[in-house]
Amino acid sequence: MLQTAPSRAGPPPAHAPDAGAPILSIQRLGKSYDKDKRVLDGIDLDIRRGEIFALLGPNGAGKTTLISIVCGIVNPGEGRVLVDGHDIVRDYRAARSVIGLVPQELTTDAFETVWATVSYSRGLFGHPPDPAHIERILRQLTLWDKRDAKIMTLSGGMKRRVLIAKALSHEPRLLFLDEPTAGVDVKLRQEMWQVVRELRESGVTVILTTHYIEEAEEMADRVGVINGGKLLLVEEKAALMQKLGRKELVLTLQEPARAVPAALEPYDLALSDDGFELRYTYNTRAEETDIARLLEAVAGAGLRLRDVTTRQSSLEDIFVDLVGERA
Prior knowledge:
- Helices cover 31% and strands 27% of the residues.
- It is elongated.
- α6 links the parallel β7 and β8.
- It folds into two domains: 218 residues, P-loop containing nucleotide triphosphate hydrolases (Rossmann fold); 68 residues, Alpha-Beta Plaits, CATH 3.30.70.
- The longest helix is centred in the middle third of the chain and has 16 residues.
- A six-stranded mixed β-sheet has the order 6-7-8-3-9-10, with helices on both faces. Strands 2-1-4-5 form a four-stranded antiparallel β-sheet, with helices on one face. A four-stranded antiparallel β-sheet has the order 12-13-11-14.
- The protein is α/β, with parallel strands linked by helices.
- The N terminus is likely disordered.
- The protein contains ten helices and 14 strands.
C-alpha cells in the first residue's frame, strides 16, 4: 500500500497556474480519421485538481482517442486542450511534463529490471537521477522487493504496478489510467483501488477509463459517460445515482400467485416465474411513488406478504440506460 511521504516538488513550472483553475480543460475537441468516421465530436470537459474522474463508455466510444490526444500521442483535429494552463500544441513540452500515462497494454522492457526501467522513464522527461524518489515509488507500490527482478519474471499484476511506477517517475500532477485493473484478479483489483485512492490523497489528479462499472462506483468522485464520440453526461457520482437512479420494491408472497391480480395492473408489476415475488420499479426523482397505495392494494387483493425489500439501481444500470437512450 502507499505510505505517507513528504511531497517532492518537481522542476518549477514556467508559469504560476491558478490553484483554483482546472488541471485539465478540454474545449470543443473534435477528431475525424476520415469523412465518415467522427471519433470525437465537440468534447467539453474540465477536470478538477485532486479528484478521481472515471470516464465510462463502450468499445469504440472515443475514450482512448481522447486520452491519446491529451497525452500528445494523437494530434487533435479541432478544439483546444490546456493541461495545468499549458496548451498541448503550442506548449507541448510543459504540458506533457505534467502528465503520467498508464496504458492498458502491458508494454514493458522484458529484459530490464524494475529499478532500471522506472529510472529510465524519469530520465526521458529530462529529470536528473533521484534514487530516493524511485525507491519511494517502488515502496509505495509494493515493488521494492522486486527492484532487481527482470520484468519478464513478474506476474501480470506486478507488471501493471511497474507501469504505474514508470508513469509516476517524473512526478506528474495528472495521471491517466487506461483500464488499470484489466486482467487482474479481484484481490489485486481491490489493492489497486487503494493505491489509486492514496495517489489522490498525495495530490495527484487521477483520470481512469474502465469497463468495470464497480470500479467507477467504488472510487470516482465524478463520472463522465462517452458514446459515439460525444460526452453524454458529466456528474457527481452520488448526484448522478440520485437523479437518474431507480429503485425496485420486491414483495415476497407467502403463497405463490398465478398472475398479477387485475386490481394491481395499474402498478405495472412483474411476477417472478415461481409466483412468489412481485417487483415494482419506480423513479427516485418522482415526488410520489405510490408505494403506500400499492401496499394497500396488495392487501386488498388478498395477497399475504412474507417480506418487503428494496434495491437501488447501480451505476451499471444507469450507464446502460444512458448509452441505450442516446445510441
